Amino acid sequence: MSMTEETIFTKIINGDIPSDKVYEDDECICIRDITPQAPTHLLVIPRKPIPRLVDASDEDKALLGHLMLKVGDIAREAGVGDGFRVIINNGANAGQTVFHLHLHILAGKTFSEGMV
Ligand code: AMP
Questions:
Q1: From the candidates 41, 66, 100, 102, which is the catalytic residue?
Q2: Coil, strand, or helix at residue 4?
Q3: N or C: which end of the chain has fewer CB within 10 A?
Q4: Are 71 and 44 in contact (CB under 8 A)?
Q5: Which one of 1, 6, 7, 8 would you pick to mutate in the ligand 1 pocket, going by the greatest count of ligand atoms within 8 A of its CB?
Q6: SS3 state at 17
């Protein structure tokens, strides 16, 4: 898929395909990942279709801050505020498959120390 085509997350945001939504506001939505990699696996997705983190620009500064703060709020609300990981896959080489920026919240399993 070209990075400029409508992604599955835009279709979800527009209500064209269903999702298990746990939060939404004017800037973002949060849904349950359809293929969870942990007992809690949520995706925080800006409504603005920024393809990858590296495609964000200075005008997105407030939006990126908003997403980070919402990650904390949503994790607390989900009961996992004391232990969760936040992952952004940037680019196909990092395993990104949906080219619409999203933050993974993963929790509910034992993570090893370190990153991978
Ligand atoms: P990434 O590899 O970082 O691009 O992550 C994309 C994520 O979107 C994967 O974890 C998928 O399981 C998830 N995903 C793909 N389609 C859907 C969908 N329709 N609803 C919820 N999550 C989805």
A1: 102
A2: coil
A3: C
A4: yes
A5: 8
A6: coil
Looking at ligand 1, which atom is closest to the CA of residue 98?
A: 4
Both tokens of 86, joined, read 């936040």
Q: Token pair of 28, please?
A: 């973002």
Identity at 12, one-letter amino acid code: I
Please give the number of the atom of ligand 1 that sits closest to the Cα of 37: 10
d(CA 49, CA 21): 18
Torsion of CA 77, 80, 83, 89, to 10 degrees: -80
Give the single-character DSSP code of 12: H
The amino acid occupying position 71 is V
Global pTM value: 0.95
Q: Per-residue pLDDT tens, the chain, 116 aa: give them.
A: 455 579 999 999 999 999 999 999 999 999 999 999 999 999 999 999 999 999 999 999 999 999 999 999 999 999 999 999 999 999 999 999 999 999 999 999 988 888 77
100 part of the active site = no
| Structural tokens at position 70 | 């919402």
